[in-house]
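user:
I keep going back and forth on a fold encoding question. Separate attempts, laid side by side, tell us more than any discussion would. Would you put together a sequence-and-structure record for a protein of your own picking? Write it directly below this note and I will take it from there.

assistant:
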Amino acid sequence: MFVDEVEVIFQAGDGAAGKASFYPGWKSGPDGGNGGSGGNIYITVTSDLTTLSQFLGKKTRKGEDGQAGGKYRKSGRNGDDITITLPLGCILTDQDTGDVIELSDINQKVLICKGGKGGKGTYALASPSNTTPLRGEPGEPGQKRNLKIVLKLIADYGLIGLPNTGKSSLLNALTSANAKVADYPFTTLEPNLGVMDKYVLADIPGLIEGASTGKGLGIKFLKHVEKVNLILHCISVESNNLESDYSTVREELRKFNPQLTEKPEIILLTKSDVADVNVLEKKRKILAKFGKVFPISILDDKSLEKLEKLLRMKI
């Protein structure tokens, strides 16, 4: 199951209390050690887009608590830090403060929650004005944050369009991806990625009218279009209303985020092998008023090669 949005509570480890104790016998005096600090929680970044599934059924992450101080000035052990790995492209929003962290660098490491400080024991608390403190300090609680994590795919090209326009088939033909293909709506239930040379293509599940308000697969996947550099808008040559198909998808992009309609776009007239030359040219002209139109078929190696060359020039 592909997971691209979760809410998780992160809590760093609590600091432990300092020890209240005194040397026995003639030596006397305070000897209580300090408590250990709680472990921090760090975030690192991976290119593996499936790692948000680690939170299925487990919505909390807790750092290790520090250990209490001991006798004879022995300090407690600090709690171990923990590191959580999240996918590149995640946006973390603190639900309480509104602070936002974007994971945009594969080498990024972020301190997300700081462990609580350990309390001082009676030895460290002793002073000329208080030679025999009777209590150690309590430890401080670890930092706690309620974070909403949203994954937005970072791809060079995004394949969008209505269901059954050949997006997954085209992704498979251009890359080494193995996306599921079938002749019914919503075959693609989650985004698929493929790599063409060094460029990443994302197959965004089919949009329908009302997607921006949650119909069909809705806004669950529209957010993945926000990060792509170039939109490849797939429209099937089999359509009986090309203009309506184009306008439906564009309107849903606009409603979701008007900036999406400003992204560079190439219109791909897919399944071009099923139409004769005259019909294909007629349909190409209908769409040409919206922008550059490129007829394509996964059965036509020359058209695939031309598209690959065009895409390389666009990045």
Remarks:
- The chain has two domains: 5-151, 157-314.
- Residues 157-314 form a domain with the Rossmann fold fold (CATH 3.40.50.300).
